[in-house]
């Protein structure tokens, strides 16, 4: 992979914290910061399907920019969805409102795996065009690209849609490991190509979302997931952009996730940052981990919790973390008051930076 000419972001706190440098202020961004909590987003998306929006470069640019203008966060994250590369490759699926991704033909056999298409760079041209538009709008604000991790993509493909128990996924994984690893090999190829396309277009960092990995035991994760996530991070390492690894309910997996190769490990709200650094190990930055529901609790509670997490982050740095990026422990909830998000950003920016 040829390394593109990167933007020179002289004083970007997000990149400084991600790479172990000293940020000028505490950096903060929020997963799902561009989306349903913003009235301007709902107005813009009225009558336009999710996937249609993700393949429209102008909409991608505008939606990604909305929280930058409103909240003043320290990084933008590309407006997209983890199933976009699957759709682009030719897998028949849709994102159904109120349900999520729904797969027309679930993948449950070796023949199904062999029939899966591969992703070609030109098939995500609308996404990379959106990245290029954003680079002209963002100024000194870094842009995060992202992809779904192979396990999470597999869980949608095998289940046929969102699942609470992941019973079909686990059955395939445990009963037919050879087919399982073939499936994750295909999905790793797709994920790597999607991330490489975004990096070539100019994103400044990437995040790998393993949203459903928390459904697994540590032994299952190590055997059936970790090798594929490791390959994702290894194959984009030469680009030199910060790599973030995040999952939900993954407290028991943090040590293994820390081994996968990312520079930053995301932590959900269930695990204190001081515990997280001990599990992940020294030498990596942490990201997180305010409970998204706290933003509903009123300004006094929000301030108390933000100050608590900042204190934990400072302690985690003394224990070996190379930096901290403030974030939620998962995405912004749809009914969140945008004013609470803006106020949280202002408070975080006003806290002293750890020495």
UniProtKB/TrEMBL annotation:
Q: For binding substrate, which residues are annotated in this chain's numbering?
A: 32-36, 81, 156, 211, 330
Checking InterPro entries in the record gives: UROD/MetE-like_sf (IPR038071), Uroporphyrinogen_deCO2ase_HemE (IPR006361), Uroporphyrinogen_deCOase (IPR000257)
Q: Which CDD domains match?
A: URO-D (cd00717)
Which GO MF terms does the UniProt record name?
uroporphyrinogen decarboxylase activity
Q: What residues does the Uroporphyrinogen decarboxylase (URO-D) domain cover?
A: 27-36, 144-160
Instruction: Note whether Nucleotide-binding occurs among the keywords.
Output: no
* Residues the record marks as site: Transition state stabilizer: 81
Pathway where it operates: Porphyrin-containing compound metabolism; protoporphyrin-IX biosynthesis; coproporphyrinogen-III from 5-aminolevulinate: step 4/4
Enzyme class, first EC level, given as a word:
lyase
Family matches, as Pfam families: URO-D
Catalyses which reaction?
A: uroporphyrinogen III + 4 H(+) = coproporphyrinogen III + 4 CO2
| Key words, A-Z | Cytoplasm, Decarboxylase, Lyase, Porphyrin biosynthesis
Q: Which domain of life is it from?
A: Bacteria
Q: What is its EC number?
A: 4.1.1.37
GO CC, one annotated term: cytosol
| Location in the cell | Cytoplasm, Cytosol
**GO biological process assignments:** protoporphyrinogen IX biosynthetic process
What biological function has been recorded for the protein in this entry? Catalyzes the decarboxylation of four acetate groups of uroporphyrinogen-III to yield coproporphyrinogen-III.
Q: How does it assemble?
A: Homodimer.
**Similarity comment text for this entry:** Belongs to the uroporphyrinogen decarboxylase family.
Q: What is this protein identified as?
A: Uroporphyrinogen decarboxylase
Look up and give the organism this protein is from.
Nocardia veterana
Q: What is the lineage of its organism?
A: Bacteria, Bacillati, Actinomycetota, Actinomycetes, Mycobacteriales
């Amino acid at each position: 992979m040829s390394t593109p000419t990167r933007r020179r972001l002289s004083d970007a706190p997000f990149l400084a914290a991600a790479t172990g440098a000293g940020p000028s202020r505490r950096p903060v961004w929020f997963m799902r910061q561009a989306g349903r909590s913003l009235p301007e987003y709902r107005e813009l998306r009225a009558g336009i399907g999710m996937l249609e929006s993700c393949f429209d470069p102008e909409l991608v640019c505008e939606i990604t920019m909305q929280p930058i203008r409103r909240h003043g966060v320290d990084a933008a994250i590309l407006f997209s969805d983890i199933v976009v590369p699957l759709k682009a490759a030719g897998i028949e699926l849709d994102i159904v409102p109120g349900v999520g991704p729904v797969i027309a033909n679930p993948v449950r056999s070796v023949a199904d795996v062999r029939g899966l298409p591969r992703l070609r760079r030109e098939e995500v041209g609308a996404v990379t065009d959106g990245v290029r538009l954003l680079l002209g709008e963002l100024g000194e604000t870094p842009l995060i690209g992202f992809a779904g991790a192979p396990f999470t993509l597999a869980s949608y493909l095998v289940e046929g849609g969102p699942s609470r128990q992941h019973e079909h996924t686990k059955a395939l994984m445990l009963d037919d490991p050879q087919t399982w690893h073939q499936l994750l090999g295909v999905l790793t190829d797709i994920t790597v190509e999607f991330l490489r396309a975004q990096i070539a277009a100019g994103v400044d960092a990437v995040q790998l979302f393993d949203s459903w990995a928390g459904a697994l035991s540590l032994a299952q994760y190590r055997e059936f997931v970790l090798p594929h996530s490791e390959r994702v991070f290894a194959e984009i390492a030469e680009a030199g952009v910060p790599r973030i690894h995040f999952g939900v309910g993954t407290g028991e997996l943090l040590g293994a996730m820390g081994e996968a190769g990312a520079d930053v490990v995301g932590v959900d709200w269930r695990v204190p940052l001081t515990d997280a650094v001990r599990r992940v190990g020294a030498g990596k930055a942490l990201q997180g981990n305010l409970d998204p529901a706290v933003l509903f609790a009123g300004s006094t509670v929000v301030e108390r919790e933000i100050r608590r997490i900042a204190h934990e982050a400072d302690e985690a740095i003394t224990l070996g973390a190379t930096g901290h990026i403030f974030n939620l422990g998962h995405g912004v909830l749809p009914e969140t008051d945008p004013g609470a998000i803006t106020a949280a950003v202002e408070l975080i920016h006003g806290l002293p930076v750890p020495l």
